[in-house]
Amino acid sequence: MNRSFLRLAAMAALSLAVQAAVPPVPKLLPKDTLAVLTIPDWAKASADLGGSPGGKLWADPAMKPFRDNFEKKFQSEVMGKLEKDLGIKVEDYLNLVRGQLSLAVIQGSWKGADGTEPGFLVVIDAKEKSDQLKKQLEEVRKKLSDAKKPVKTEKVRDVEFSSISIDLPKGEDEEEEPDAKDAAKDKAKADGNKMTLLFGQVDTALLVADSVATLEKVVAGMGGGSVASLSEESAFQASESAWFKDAFAYGWMHVTPLYKIASDKLGSEPNEGADAMGVDPKAALKAVGLAGLKTVSMAWNVNTEGSGGVISLGIPEAQRTGLFKMLSAATKESGPTPFIPADVIKFQRWRLDGQKMWSTMEETLAAVSPQLNGFVQMMVAQAGKEKDPSFDLKKNVVGNLGDDIILYSKAPKGSSIEELSSPPSLTLVGSPNAEGLSAGMKAAVGAFGGGGGGEEVKDREFNGKKVRGLRMPAGPGAKDNRVEMASSAGYLAVGTAPALLEEFLRSSDGGGRSLKEDKALMDAAQKVGGMGTGMFGYENQRESMRSQWEFLRTGGLDKMLGESDEEGGWRAMFDFKLLPEYSKVLKYFGIAVFAGSTDAQGMHFRFYGPHTK
């Protein structure tokens, strides 16, 4: 019996010595969490990032001059100032991050009323370094006390937290007047520029918050109390099961309560606050579709094969109105067509029904402002009538729109800012009557003030096709764009690069390798759901980064922004002239793909990049 008693005593002692694990975000945060951004396992995430192409690029010996300059300037300009203000060495605390790192916004009692704010919380799990965390928190308290900075002690569920008040930076309109005499006003202004911070340790985690109320539910839950957690929120459950399992990092926002607060703040009566055009802000929020948006979710994943992620808008199909209905792609083939050349560096295809989009846009505008919609309808009806009484914008343009939009571009010809911003590119618009759309577009541009003045861009013929030209006025001091349009293979092609347009018009002759034949692209596409989701995109980052890298390395940014005479600042920290030649780092760049899809639950955008070998 004595041996049994000793065994129980030993087990009890051992259990007291072992600290409880910090719960994961779904169990840690309260149900009324509005937003969270978390890295569930910092140690693993750091290792994964180090093995990714980006991590290897940063560690490459060729990057040493740039890396050393950045680290030196970051230490002096950012970390040094922060350490001076706080009286601590920040690196000592960054080394304590071993488990989860989470930032959260919690609603609490906030309903949008003036003078109240949602709460915020930071959670850093030190795991096996919890003893070191405890020691360093004691040092922080001592340093604050020695510096005669007031530190209060607040108890939250029998856990002691230190409370300090910090000054926030003042805006230009918040500078106090030297001759201000109203003491009460001065005190209120000063109080408005202060923020309370509470920090303390619970189990192995450092918790930092702005109030006792923010900490209350979190500490209670960590102590085994009965508290409704985020895992019980159905809106979060849907996102978690779909996207967050095994995620490298993820973020989530509960839009429904935010929408309600914003809507209530805009007024309870119809047309309350409407402007001269009858635009009611509250009605506009609903009309554009925000009333149906429930959540926004983001997740990132990194493994040995590649990196990718997803951005998901939780908006049920039955509540999808306004912009969300307008921009929903049909579930159709969206990969490269056979005539897309293999040497393009960017490709996007969107199966968007132009006529339905126009109809939804009219419905949305009518809901936002009947007066404004009436004005727009009148402008559309009269467009082009002065030059051609028979011209009908809806019939000649909108009526000829199909459900396919393709954009692709090739590498810039050089590395100047003009060449980088306008690489050779082409836009293809699917149409049941592409030639009619081409004629209608030229007439429409002329009707709205484009295509005229200056040198006329004449129509021409190429490969048996009519190429319509027009001039698009640019801003002051900028060269006007010469745009050409032509129809072929069921598409209207529009672009400013004649050679690329002519290549498209020749594509029906066959010959040349197509992007569709790229096996690496086909393999990567499977990671984002394939090419039949209605939206698909591709980028050859190895080639697209080439000119951008050289632009930065050769001082292009300084030429664009002007030479900086600041000794510090971000431009000194990011001294791009110290970058190596692109040929030394191009091995870290490969391809990237993305796809957009819609289903009954929402709209989802996936992206992925296979790691280079």
Topology:
Layout: H1 2-17, H2 25-28, E1 33-39, H3 42-50, H4 53-59, H5 64-86, H6 90-94, E2 101-106, E3 119-125, H7 130-146, E4 152-156, E5 159-167, H8 183-192, E6 194-202, E7 205-209, H9 212-222, H10 234-244, E8 249-254, H11 255-265, H12 281-287, E9 295-302, E10 306-314, H13 322-326, E11 346-350, H14 354-368, H15 370-382, H16 393-396, E12 405-409, H17 417-421, E13 425-430, H18 434-447, E14 460-462, E15 465-472, E16 481-488, E17 491-495, H19 498-506, H20 519-525, E18 535-540, H21 541-553, H22 556-561, H23 570-573, E19 591-598, E20 602-610
Antiparallel strand pairs: 1-2, 1-8, 2-3, 3-7, 4-5, 5-6, 6-7, 8-9, 9-10, 10-20, 11-12, 11-18, 12-13, 13-17, 14-15, 15-16, 16-17, 18-19, 19-20
Structure, briefly:
The protein has 613 residues and is α+β, with helices and mostly antiparallel strands. The chain contains 23 helices and 20 strands.
Overview of this protein structure:
By secondary structure, this protein is α+β, with helices and mostly antiparallel strands. It has 2 domains: 32-172 and 180-232, no CATH class; 315-610, no CATH class. Helix content is 37%, strand content 22%. The protein is built from 23 helices and 20 strands. It has a 20-stranded antiparallel sheet, sandwiched between helices. Helix 12 packs antiparallel against helix 14 (354-368). Residues 4-19, 171-178 and 187-191 have low confidence and may be disordered.
